[in-house]
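Bump. Still looking for Lipopolysaccharide heptosyltransferase family protein structure tokens.
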Amino acid sequence: MPRAPHPSRKTFTRFASKQPFQFGLPNVSANLSQTSDNSPIYFTRATSLLRRQILATAPGVKIKSDSYRFQVVPREDWSEQDFSNKSVLFLIPDDALGDCVGMALFFRALKQRFGDIRIGVLNSGSASDIFALIPDIEIFQLFISSTQLKRFDHVIDLSEMEGWRDIATMPVNPEEALCEAFGIPPLPLEKRQLPKGTRLKVGIVPMASSPLRTLPPKLVSEVTKMLTNRDCDVTLVLNAYQGVMKAYKAALGPLAGDSIRVVDGFKTIGDLVKFVGEQDYLVVADSGPAHISKLFQTPGIGIYSSADAKTLQGRHANLRAWQSDFTGPYCSAPCGLAKLRATPDGKIGCMGSLGLPISALPDTPEKSDPELARALVTTKPVPCVAKLESDIPAICDVISQDLAQA
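Sorry for the wait, here they are.
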């Protein structure tokens, strides 16, 4: 017998507005922006950008509460529910691109299992363009109105999924975990081949959100040189939203050749998604684009350091996985860390870079250290990333073998 709904883990802000309003994140496609609908009440995550930076000073807005919780289907009942002809609103735990790709793949499988299900996502944030790839999904970037909420039969809080609380320090595979939790099979994968007899378009995306996962500049420079010698059209995509981008770009040095294009960053995640889908082959760090490639089955190589390639790629074999094999006195790759950690006295790094056991690094850093971040992606990478420099000839050879099939 189904259990009664219970409160969501995350709290939401209830607010009212006397004036019409519109809101959309700058890195999300404009067609996904949201507009008020004259409802008496609206809901947004209490920690969202909308709540923290806009509502407090917006004229005509009245905050009713910062402690509202939706009534959600208990985790134990997810696999027991019949979602046929039902409207289901999913609360998105975070907008990390890799996690949201896994959720999007799960939604595809859910729609296959319940063909008449109607899906909505709330708090999709910067990842809204990823969910937009799913037909007939309703996307609420940062807020939902009380009128819109009434249209849904069920609300499900995906943060109740096991492992989500630790996802920043121990990555999981959301697609497979959610399919298992809902008792449905993932969709079959189609193998995408390299095109024959044409000049290949190769995308290189070396920067991740953490220095633990960003590729060494020397590796990127050597791979780029090898690809231009193979007469490929190479696009190197950096990340202008990261404060270390200029330092990383300088560390790459000059990249010779008319067939090389350097993109400092895309305006929206939608532009990045389109780019990944258009490439014939990818060379990517453990980052959002590596996961986005699953949506198109774009061939390529994923180069991994601290995180486990098998866990992150799961059943998807479109990317050949290269795993750093660093081993030191305090850790071995992959250690599982997705972000840097901090000692109680404020030293920032990982087990290998600080020469400490994981027990001495209990927390994630509370403050950023721009100078350290720049050093970690240029001159002083963490050991498992530095180890990739000795792998350059072997990595170039693997890529050459892949491209020889075109």
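The mean pLDDT is 93.

Edit: fixed formatting.
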